[in-house]
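Hi,

I'm pasting everything inline rather than attaching a file, because the server keeps stripping attachments. The sequence lines come first, and each chain or strand is labelled.
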Amino acid sequence: MLEILINAVTLGSLYLLFALGMSVAWGTIGILNFAHGSTFMFSAMVAYFVVQTVALPMWAMVLLGAAVGTVLSVLTQALVFNLILRRNPDLLKAEMQIVVGGIGTASVLLAIAQHYTKSVPFGFSASTFKVATYQLGPVHISNVQLVILVAALGLAGLAAWWLKSARAGLALRAIGVNPEVASLMGVDRSRMALGTMAAAGALAGIAGVLLTYYLGSIAAETGDSFLISAFAAIILGGIGSVAGVVTGSMILALAETLVVTQLSGTWASAVAFGLIFVVLLFLPRGIFGRKEVRRT
Amino acid sequence: MIGWYEANLVLIEATFLNFLLALSIQVPLRLGVFSFAGVGSYGLGAYTAAILTLRYDVPAFVAIGAAVLLAAVVGYLFSLLVARLNGLYLAMATIAFVLIIAVLATNGGELTGGANGLYGALSDLTTGGVVAVCVVVAVLLALTERGPLRRRIEAVREDPELSLSMGIGVVPMRQMAFAVSGALGACAGAMNALLRTTVSPEEINFHLIVLALTMVIIGGSRSWIGAFIGSVIFTWLPSVLASAGRWQDVVYGVIIILAAIFMPTGLLGLVQTLYQKLRGRRSAAVTAEAPADDTAEERALLQALGGESRGGVQ
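And the predicted assembly:
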């Protein structure tokens, strides 16, 4: 039972790393990035091609993934979302265009990845990192799981502290409440948006590399299934809240793991999504969601 | 011409089926409701029609009719369930609905054929029948795009609170949208299952949701013509791009991105804006029309709100 719990928390931490940036970007600058899953997968793929030529240690791979994720995310923001918003300044009306722009970006990245990996799963067996398992009291835990747990909880804590206490975090939250007033108060919206997307991309890259270490290998299509799970976790917890993403990711991972181990694999997504459905019926804004103040 | 028609019959049929699928997303969207439940109804309709045809050997119109009715009822009941949700929270709940339908189909045992799906649902549905259904649907939807009904729909989309205070039944209209969306999705699914004689759970996935949404947004989300444009583009684009060789998927994605950036009101909106600009230039000498930098959407809204609001402002 403890093993199941450890596995569930590891999966939840990966969901958390992936969904954190997406949730903050969505809750503050109002951008729901559908290319987040492809950014995540693409970062892992670039790291894979680098490790084929140079045998890198794990920390270098994680940094590389973060760097690639940052670059991709910033490019998506500058070349797609920014152009959409400039032509269509009303965020509510631009929402659908942003979703579709993200879908287009995702299919470009997916097509490139499928072409270079020939749709074959890839892994980091060439890395210098070796998986080891430790015995902690009654449970077995691998070093990959430890890294994932520490990275996810550390980064989520950092993000929560930064949003709450730092001056820039306050500015970002102000954009989330009212973009126009925030600009009038001297908040540079486009710079904050670029910074948020960069951080979100870095988190996606880290999640991609760590997932590949954890599972052994991932495929170009893995990003899509992660995107749906992350979307579910964010909605479950409440958009834009760090505590919400942590809760949503853990609940989702626990539910999926329990169903897969106790029932059968084919029911996993039904139970996970049934759960979201039920939670939304009772808490229409997610567990930690704040009441929307904007009209219509 | 006959040769081309026969060679591309599958794509021609797919265009009309995609048109109905796109409409099942567009109808709620016109009321400002982000619901993808129509894609779930697509699966529901496909399985209902296939099961009825396989087990009871009913004629096509009975199978499709039963599927449409069932999905409309399910859509209505679903709308009661999600009445408190809106925006992207509603979108997530409807995505969950779609994926749950797919899982139910996978685990349905003998009734749904499990992961393999159902085979051999031979029926008497013809391409002509599909086109006839699409024409009827298009005519009915065109009727909702004119007169008082169109004004009510636009008012509900732009400002639900205001519409409520003006005496428009926002809640019944939304419930109606869910039922219509379910009927349209089921119609597309049922006809697809009967034309292809097979249905499998893999067809009902996230990609179908993405395809339906993309067709509506790129084509134009305000009119059935937009949905038709979108379905023509996205049914034929892959085969047109086949000439681009191995980079066709990249080109496909780039086209979607460019459309999202440069056509905020969809292809239909772009055409309307250009047409109005041309007409505006011709009539500019006679009357000072609305400023040229007004978007087509704003102008349409101004028109929809009627003379009184324009009079009130001036």
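The CA atoms of residues 44 and 104 of chain A lie 20 Å apart.

If the labels don't parse on your end, tell me and I'll reformat.
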